[in-house]
Amino acid sequence: MPDSPGKDSAKRLSDTREDDSHGGYFHNKRVKQRAQDRALQAQMPAGSTSRVLSGCTVYVNGHTDPPRLALHDLVVRHGGVFLHYLSSKGAATHIVAEHLPPRKRVEFRNCKVVSPRWLLDSVQQGRQLPWAPYSVLGGSAAENTLTLAGADTIAVAAESSTIPNASVNTRTVPSVNTPTVAAERTNTPTPNVSAPTVAAGNSNTPNVASPTVPTAPAPSTRADAFPTAASDPEAFLRSYFEHSRLHKLSEWKARLRQEFVRAHSAEPPLTAPPSRVLHIDFDCFFATVAFLHRDKRRFPALDFARDPVAVCHGRGSSDVASCNYAARALGVRNGMWAASAQRRMPAGTTLTLLPYDFAAIEAASATFYAVLRGCPDFRWVLPVSIDEAVCVLRGEGEDEIVLAEQLRRAIRERTGGCTASVGIGASLVLARLALRLAKPDGVYAAGGDPSPPDSFWEQFSVRDLPGVGGAAAAKLGGADTATLGTLRHSTTLPSLQTQLGNKLGGKVWAALHGQDDPESQRMLLDPCAVFDRKSVAVDINWGIRFATVAQVDAFLDVCAGYVANKLRECGKRAGSVTLKLHRRAAGAPVEPPKYLGMGRCDAVSQAAGLGVPSGDVGVLATELKALFRALAVPVQELRGVAVHLAKLCGDQEAGPRTPGQWLGKGRVGAGALPAPVSTTPKATTPKGGAGPSANASAERYRRLRVSPVKDRAAVPRPAASDPGVAAFLEALPSQLQREVRRDLAGAIGETTGGGRGRLRAEMQRRAEAARAVNAHLTGSGGTLLAPVRFQGEASFKRVCRTVEAWVAATCSGDGPNDGPHERDVHVFLRYVEKLCAGDRVHLALRVASLVSTALALREGSCGDTRAYAEWEHILVRRVLPVLNRNRLTFQTERKLDVEWEV
Q: Which pLDDT score is estimated for 646?
């Protein structure tokens, strides 16, 4: 039966779909577009074309200036190939873009992404210019890898687009030895526009907040708008501290406590706990100040009591620093992301996000403390934070609530509307609990003698106690839901110490009975001792992205200068320094959801004692660099850096300055050393005789250069079989018994003749060493260093030729293996380790640089890109850690270049 017309139509439609499939369609489209480009080039005047861009296949991504059509005409006119559709990343040799979103930066991390200026400048100069200075990946602060202006490139693929199969590169850091094009633009936005934040589900279109004053390290989308830790560490640190809320809180707190110590250092401490304590705290301080000083043109009809208001930096991953009680009633909490807070809003309700106003916050805090310090009823006003204080009454009175109301009224009037709450109690913990009942905008006094009644304790859970968190509540087994009234009658001190530990258990038991722990009591009795500066620290947990060790060294120099200035301001010196590094955790994404944040990290730290307390920048910087190399964290994995100085002492305690000491500030001279070190031992004169003459002294020192062995008096040694010794050994633990028996056996061996042979061998060794020194100094052919051999060859020049030939053979692509053999790599690493261990780090650096140079010369002609990537992995992951672990690498200042152009 013949097919029906319907079947014929379906068959023809099926054939058409098979012929015009997805791949065939785009293939035919590319063929037609290239034919049109060739026809367009043929129609152009003879003098207007060139072959400058010959060999370049260009793809334009996004909006550019000049526009896409103009760039298409430029590429075709000068011999290049223009791609209208990017079928794969390897199809284009160059990707042209003005800027890229974070997701595209990860996608194109192994590609040559340049700005349109590269095409224009290349055509203008008649040759293809180096692409790295025009790299978009290296010229934007919004990228995953920050600008590395003026720095050399680490060995992870400056032009790794030629090795698309290289699996060892987790991220690419392009080489940028010249200024980026972004620095030449004039339409740079100023830093007072809050940064774009990328939501979790939309990485292509960042949400740019409305123009608000930023108050945290959230940079704009341009590298020149916010300095980077790698390119300009000093400007980065200054901008970070200028915009960081936590830094300002810490600085204000430290300054308030220093002012308290200076004002009350002459007063004696209390001998008995105070009778009444007032705990005063602002209500949602940051949110209230932001509301009072808001832009009334943008927020004209905003009711702070009813409308939810929060203070943060942006609208995406910015943390909510403070929110009013209307927002808290809807589930908003301090510390959550702004995007999460907005999702908690019910339909028809908008969460108003306000910017910080640090000047107004500082002014309101100053007014707050001025009101409290002006009250004559307070013996001490103890600063807890900029918006929180503990006030100790001079005596016991009956008008505490009246006094608290007067203070609240004065604070509200003088700050222009900021409300405060007051909790009153016989101890600090009772005042803190009473403050919880007083909030918001109220006063509560915890009465009772000696402890408040059970009705007071029934209003709190164990989580309300200061210092008790979720982990401690979980150990108590459901105590997070039980009230303190139930807990204080059902537990004992031994049971709490068994569950929580001795310290925390004792603290909870004391709090349940209305008593302060020893630390809180000490703050009330002797606040000057508690508030005196014990440490100085700097913690950077945002924007830390480096590519080279030199950049980390420069950043540590700036951190050392910052903490040294803090030491100088408080008149202290540090006895120990600790470096804490946050390393990207295994399996964590290279770029976390929070823009340039730390993400999931592993923290490692190491401390070093300074011996003599010091505040010198050079000493601190040297110790920090040594600690960084001891921790051996790859620079690309760094996400946070913290420097902590402890064991602080005053300048006078560290040692007085004398004219004979070093003239530089903070340098440690002989006067700062302990007495046994700084003083010269006095020469003793034998009784009945005169002191030695000058000639005799010189002769004596000449004789002692060889350190002769002195005659020893025969002292009888105890034997392990002696009854007294045996009884003594039986009373010792077994491990100590073995050590003592071993020592006795060695001592007995020395007296039986074996020791004489060892002494004779030692004298012979010293004599040979002295002959070697003389031969080395006089040029008679001796040497101090034993030769280090590689494949049986001791000549370093011949070793270099062998290594160069080895690199050439492994990169030729003719062999059956991809890259060097693992056994050969192991032998090479052993050779580098022996060079470093033998105090010949310069030779290790030379042979490593030789490998890097050989790879750079063969990059274009390398037959096997996988071999090139394998060598790249060996240099970065295996050779560089060996050099960094060496004890001599960090003892010179920027004299060892351990970065390579690979």
A: 92
